[in-house]
Amino acid sequence: MARPLRVFMVSFVAVGTVIAAGSVARFSYAPMPDEGDLLNPGRYPVSTAYDVLGRRVARAEAERLRATSEGRGALTAESGAVAIDEALLRRGREAFYRETFGNEVFLSDVMGMLDGGLTPYEVARAIVLLGGKGTTNLQVRMARDVSVGDRIWRTGELVPTGLDVPRNSAFILGIRTFYDRGRLRMGITCALCHAAVDPASGKVVEGAPNTDLNAGLLMALASNASAYFMHGSADPSAHPGDPARQVITESGARAALPDRDRFEAAAKVEVASWPAGSFDSSADRETNPTSIPSSFSAYAEPYSWSGRAGIGPFKGLSALNNNVHAANSDTTQQTRAAKTLFGLDPQVYLGTVLQGAAAGPLRYDPASGRRPTEMLEAADPTPGTPGLNSYAVLPSFPATNYMTDNGLLASVPGEPANYANNAMSAFQNLLRAPDAPADTEQMRRGRAVFERVGCAGCHSGPALSNNRVIPIAEIGTQPSRAHSTMRMEARLAPPEIFATDTPFPLPPDPKLVPIPLEGEVLKQVQLAWAHAGTAGGYKVQNLVGLAWSAPYLHDSGVAVGPDAEKQLGVPGTLDAGIAPDPANSLRALVDRGLRAKVVAANAASQKARTARVTGEGHAYWADPAAGVSAGEQTDLVAYLLSINALTEQVPVP
Fold first, then answer.
1. pTM
2. Rounded distance, CA 316 to CA 212, Å?
3. Which string of DSSP letters, residue by residue, matches 369-413?
4. What is the DSSP letter of 275?
């Protein structure tokens, strides 16, 4: 049987199985590509025996430590040690592709990702129509009209989702589908954003950012985008609702919820403004999405664009992985911190999130006589813990502790608390970008320009990053995201995690491991979080895999298409359905003349202004005004695009 026909058969058999199973079956599935389906199957060789709160312990050092009782103590779970073994790495790859930590309940039952303009039937139809060819941008037909600002997405219109389907696959990369006794849900895994299909071969690039994932538009087309309002600039107080629709606040007073329809319309405009390939992971009540980073993560610490994930296991990478699922994929967990973070009564906050929930058991109606928290508790699949996802709860919850936003560690029953996050960190630190042909002489010339104009002053080390956070006043890029965590300083706890062998669900008195934080490391963490009187900053990015991560800068603002005269900025590329050209976009990063055109194009777009996309800052030039000829600039760009792996032999993961 031909491979495309097999894809058709798999799709129809899957649908038939669901129908036949009726209301009694429970099952789930997420794709994980075989090695032969990867464009970058190569890995760095494993040379680290342990990670101890971010310190790599090589195998030779581990052997020496095991020779003494003190040394053996340093490698225990009570010291925060994570053993690097094959089981950890296997679990890391599996979790990267398949672990949702339960976010399918929030995304489906609260946010209504399957109950808005796009339905499971239309998604399945779009995949079947591919006939096994694969795509980097699944085009899905609208099932019903949905208004987003002045734009009406009409029934039958094709939506550019940016969802990736590998060649000869019947499933979307990074989506796990759940069928539970008649209820269909979808959850997301790390692979949705941090793996991509190569358009030329149809193979998967592990670690490459999904640069055309239209996450904001997908959320805008959901039935309850309001559930994510705290990640945008929509203000509930600007849309007062029916005075009869009141909640009982924490103090016992009564307060009206915002008007459901008007506030939903405002929330849709905010999330729809995100450029493709971006996501707003900061719950700061400002729309300020950032470009999805790669997972070519070895020696790229600190993590997140601001560098806020900089301590704990794997030098902060586990903190970054955790933040996705413990803070970003379930907004109900923020209820207890709503007053501190958003200036909202917790009951008003949760009532706003749940009043438009897709599933009846979670849809809040003031007429029920119950508080929103009581409704959540009654329908919560994880009773006894905050929110809907699966969390190990630190005693400091809901306080921030620099390892977590809120004292929650996304965890999976039956394995140690935080184990999946650590496993994914170990796996990600082995990833490298695909090999690419390079002109050795041109690379030598480009590296010489790189050094001459001063790039190496910051972009040094194995991943070409000095691992520092640069104050916003110095780097000069759009500042909103740099201070997005400022409010969290009001409720701050000392950083700690559970001992790395702590079972989950947690025992009655779990062992806690403090994370040392002092001196210059503390100052850098405070700068990254915009605490201690600082205005925040942005980290020095690593340069591995630049060929796969255009556009550039944290706001995705430095984007240029294949036509460098007309396809400028986010409006001329991503918003127009045109993939940014890595070489032209990098040239705009270092050429002040081309950059000025890009910045002007962004400034002319209302959508870009809503998302705070400018393309400004990082004013370090390699252009004629800096004494760099056009040919030398071409060599520099070619050198930057050739960097596909660490530049030094160092211990990994």
1. 0.95
2. 26
3. -S-HHHHHHHH-SSTTSSSSS-EEEPTTTTSB-SS-SSSEEE--T
4. P
